[in-house]
């Protein structure tokens, strides 16, 4: 039997924004690229409109319950981009000057809104990010806008990566977009990476890394059963000169923790400083008569609203508190969101309940009003207080259900600062939506599964200070040259807006450095590929190549 | 495993079923299925979690909770017995202790078991989660089929029927007009400045 180990130039762990972007550029530049993705490879026709366990709705997701924080993330080829809502705002300028829990600027000096803007520009082109018009806004977004206006606030249609000409407003985008309206990575970076020879292997869950005497890395993985993720169908090893870790902020640090006995001491910040992007949810039960009377809204066919089911996730956000002159922990955006049944309905609380708020008689009454629910998503500034405990036996969680549900080792005890932001956001949502009896509002309970984030960040973050950051400002893991981290775990802290655009921009920004490192290790690769949908370069003027480190 | 028709259901499984139904009915209450229904308390109109198929979902191995259900039911009954002793409530020996409690007593006990400081909280929250999912998403059924069969949860929530191909599409999706002033510091591409 041959004991030869398979070899590749660059091994990418995860195929979400951090993985797909790196894979595309490196493959286009001439490197042999292999992508290992823990989840299945679902094609557009696999994206079902079905809540049944085992449908794409549960196959594409991972819900990991921790101690004080639960994380919902993507688990398929395309990662978060398959299940996300495609809201693509740039992070506001003040975010890059945040000090957070360390009392000094937490971002690397080389990263600011100005230095990131060219990369954001590139993403807007490659992911077809467009500014929505009011005609694109869903009923739920319109209602939120009208309520904000009524309460003296502003509200903006979001910039999104959605082709509205294909969108049917089915609100199933969390199960993957059947209509290819959503610009997931499966319709841009990943097919472009494949066209340049990259190989993507689904259902390969990386467990840990080891190092060879030549300084290469060996990536140890298990093969996961395609339907029951609790089952494993073997394991394997691949050797690579460069490793790009992009398994998501709830998994990347766990792989590194498990690798520590093989690779040596990890930076202190691996598995620490986790941020839930300061996220918090409120559910409002809209009074339909008041919505008609106070806001003058009408769907023309009866109710003023009653349209919770219709739309495309979030379409409108209020940014009045994205004001850099306000103190830290009091800045946030308030975004209309759709949360489909099954994934959080249990956490919504019944306002004015005489008994329990999340179950029982009063809860059932608000479930009967589900069509008139409006969900508001607050993205605040938290304190990076999440810490990962010892890693589980495999993966990043002990899996309970065949898909989706697992128990992880993330611990998150919200600080007073975090609660301050949440409380302020809750109060403002209440003030806006309860004005003149428009609605009754309650935040989701934290008592069942802790706080809830769909945007895990910062668990292996970049920075200038080795004591509080795991990566240098080129996304390379401190003390372990040749390992780069390009997913949400590299983002230093909460962004006050949806983070996909910033995660992707940071990944684009990291690529020249990864190319340089690969060249130093003898990989014949160059940097300079155009945006992945190359046809656009002919119709839009392609962006100039950005300044790259010397020698690339 | 399917029971052979002639085999009587073991008492423990029967008790577990009644207990789990009573627990599910506490999470999303419903109307009694028949006049002498003991597990469903009848605390709300329309079908609740039990009519929505809670037991079918819980006993499906895909959930991962299926193996421990009899133990959970036994534990719920132990807690019910203890709760009844503390509260001076006399239990009906013909049904499992949890089932013997009335709806408000069951509610009080479930609230206690799911409190953040309860040592078994995770189990009870997990059980509650699936009881809720049976109602709010019919996670044991194909959604279109569940709707066509009048699933009580999806129907109560007002979820519409999909198109003939099983996919949802909404032609009318918004109010189509400007409804607020834009934030003054918005970039040309629609981001915060």
From TrEMBL, chain A:
One of its GO terms (molecular function) is flavin adenine dinucleotide binding. Residues 452-507 form the Glucose-methanol-choline oxidoreductase C-terminal domain. Pathway: Steroid metabolism; cholesterol degradation. Its EC number is 1.1.3.6, 5.3.3.1. Its cofactor is FAD. Belongs to the GMC oxidoreductase family. This is Cholesterol oxidase.
């Amino acid at each position: 039997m041959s004991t030869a180990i398979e070899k590749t130039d660059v091994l990418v762990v995860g195929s979400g924004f951090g993985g797909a972007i790196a894979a595309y550029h490196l493959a286009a530049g001439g490197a042999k690229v292999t992508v290992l993705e823990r989840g299945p490879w679902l094609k557009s026709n696999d994206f079902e409109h079905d809540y049944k366990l085992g449908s794409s709705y549960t196959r594409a997701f991972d819900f990991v319950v921790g101690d004080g924080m639960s994380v919902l993330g993507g688990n398929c080829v395309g990662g978060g981009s398959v299940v996300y809502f495609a809201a693509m705002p740039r992070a506001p300028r003040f975010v890059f000057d945040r000090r957070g829990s360390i009392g000094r600027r937490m971002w690397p000096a080389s990263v600011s809104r100005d230095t990131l803007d060219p990369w954001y520009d590139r993403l807007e082109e490659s992911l077809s990010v467009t500014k929505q018009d009011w005609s694109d806004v869903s009923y739920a977004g319109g209602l939120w806008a009208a309520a904000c206006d009524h309460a003296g606030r502003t509200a903006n249609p979001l910039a999104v990566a959605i082709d509205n000409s294909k969108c049917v407003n089915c609100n199933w985008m969390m199960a993957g977009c059947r209509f290819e309206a959503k610009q997931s990575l499966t319709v841009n970076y990943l097919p472009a990476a494949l066209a340049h020879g990259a190989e993507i292997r689904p259902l390969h869950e990386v467990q840990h890394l080891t190092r060879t005497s030549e300084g290469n890395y060996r990536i140890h993985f298990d093969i996961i059963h395609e339907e029951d993720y609790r089952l494993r169908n073997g394991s394997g090893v691949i050797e690579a000169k460069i490793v790009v870790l992009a398994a998501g902020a709830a998994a990347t640090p766990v792989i590194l923790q498990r690798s520590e006995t093989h690779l040596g001491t990890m930076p202190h910040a691996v598995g620490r400083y986790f941020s839930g992007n300061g996220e918090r949810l409120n559910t409002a039960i809209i009074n339909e008569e008041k919505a008609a009377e106070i806001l003058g809204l009408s769907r023309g066919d009866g109710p003023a609203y009653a349209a919770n089911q219709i739309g495309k996730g979030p379409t409108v956000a209020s940014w009045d508190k994205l004001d850099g002159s306000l103190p830290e922990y009091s800045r946030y955006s308030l975004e209309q969101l759709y949360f489909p049944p099954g994934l959080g309905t249990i956490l919504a609380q019944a306002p004015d309940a005489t008994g329990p708020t999340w179950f029982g008689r009063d809860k059932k009454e608000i479930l009967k009003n589900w069509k008139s629910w409006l969900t508001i998503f607050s993205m605040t500034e938290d304190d990076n207080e999440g810490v990962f405990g010892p890693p589980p036996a495999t993966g990043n969680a002990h899996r309970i259900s065949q898909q989706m549900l697992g128990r992880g080792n993330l611990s998150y005890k919200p600080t007073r600062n975090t609660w301050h932001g949440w409380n302020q956001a809750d109060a403002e949502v209440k003030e806006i939506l309860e004005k003149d009896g428009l609605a009754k509002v309650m935040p989701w309970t934290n008592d069942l599964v802790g706080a809830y984030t769909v945007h895990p960040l910062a668990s292996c973050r970049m920075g200038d200070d080795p004591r509080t950051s795991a990566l240098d400002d080129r996304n390379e893991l401190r003390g372990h040259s040749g390992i780069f981290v390009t997913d949400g775990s590299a983002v230093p802290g909460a962004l006050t807006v949806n983070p996909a655009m910033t995660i992707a921009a940071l990944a684009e920004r990291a690529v020249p450095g990864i190319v340089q490192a690969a060249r130093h290790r003898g990989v014949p690769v160059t940097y300079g590929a155009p945006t992945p949908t190359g046809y656009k370069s002919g119709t839009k003027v392609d962006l100039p190549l950005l300044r790259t480190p010397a020698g690339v | 495993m399917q029971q052979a028709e002639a085999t009587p259901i073991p008492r423990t499984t029967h008790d577990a079923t009644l207990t789990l139904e009573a627990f599910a009915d506490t999470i999303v209450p419903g109307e009694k299925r028949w006049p002498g229904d003991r597990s469903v308390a009848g605390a709300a109109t329309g079908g609740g979690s039990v009519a929505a198929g809670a037991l079918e979902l819980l006993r499906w191995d895909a959930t991962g909770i299926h193996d421990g259900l009899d133990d959970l039911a036994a534990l719920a009954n132990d807690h019910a017995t203890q709760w009844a002793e503390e509260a001076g409530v006399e239990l009906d020996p013909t049904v499992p202790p949890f089932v013997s409690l009335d709806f408000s007593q069951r509610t009080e006990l479930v609230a206690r078991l799911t409190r953040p400081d309860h040592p078994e909280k995770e189990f009870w929250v997990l059980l509650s989660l699936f009881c809720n999912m049976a109602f709010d998403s019919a996670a044991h059924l194909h959604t279109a089929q569940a709707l066509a069969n009048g699933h009580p949860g999806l129907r109560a929530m007002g979820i519409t029927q999909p198109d003939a191909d099983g996919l949802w599409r909404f032609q009318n999706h918004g109010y189509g007009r400007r409804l607020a002033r834009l934030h003054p510091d918005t970039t040309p591409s629609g981001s915060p400045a």
